[in-house]
Amino acid sequence: MPVKIAPSLLSADFAHIADQIAAVEAGGADYLHLDVMDGRFVPNITWGPKIIGDLRKLSKLTFDAHLMIVEPERYVDDFRSAGADIITFHYEATNHAQRLLTHIRSLGAKAGIALCPQTPVAMLQDIIEDCDLVLIMSVNPGFGGQRFIPRSFEKLREARELIAGRNPPCILEVDGGVGTENIRGVVDAGANAIVMGSSIFGTTDPAATVRVMRRLATE
Length: 219
Ligand code: DX5
Ligand code: ZN
Hints:
Elements: E1 4-7, H1 17-26, E2 31-37, H2 49-56, E3 62-68, H3 76-82, E4 86-90, H4 97-106, E5 110-115, E6 133-137, H5 152-166, E7 171-175, H6 183-188, E8 193-196, H7 198-201, H8 206-218
Parallel strand pairs: 1-8, 2-3, 3-4, 4-5, 5-6, 6-7, 7-8
Helix pairs in contact: 1-8, 2-3
The protein binds D-xylitol-5-phosphate and zinc ion.
């Protein structure tokens, strides 16, 4: 499966949000990664369904919503109605991941599950068939611009092995601390969707940077 490039809006300039989205779309991005933070699951706050619904009118990109919130089951319907195409919640945020994955699929979205750095890939053993996307967090969630945790390479390899054996179409996404220096490495470890915030929106020409990242990921 070709690699999906997923710029994370968290690091964009919100005073020029429409231009920033248009830039990464022009550069050939696949997903727009939308980090939803509630100040409870993570120590930061971003946006909810209203903002995602308004952004939906600006872009045809696949909207990849990453919910870093407690009680995600309370909100997935609202994010789907707002236009999220992929809805990813955290394994650590619910006792009923299998039910929530099934519910997200029933809404017509792709169902994703995210693992914090502390959570072993083995926790997916009994639910991997219910996942359309597995997100390996390569930083502790909450902020952009953090350093990639090296152990994540091994977790990506483990997740790729699980997916290859049990659910090959499942997307394997990585999020946090990815840039020009390690994008090739995460792809080699098995990731096929790459979230990048500061390494794309922190550059002067995000459209050109998306093209560079795609080249580094595929050549
Ligand atoms: C962090 C978010 C990430 C963040 C990544 O909790 O989930 O999506 O935007 O930012 P970078 O790519 O700068 O590490
Ligand atoms: Zn994210």
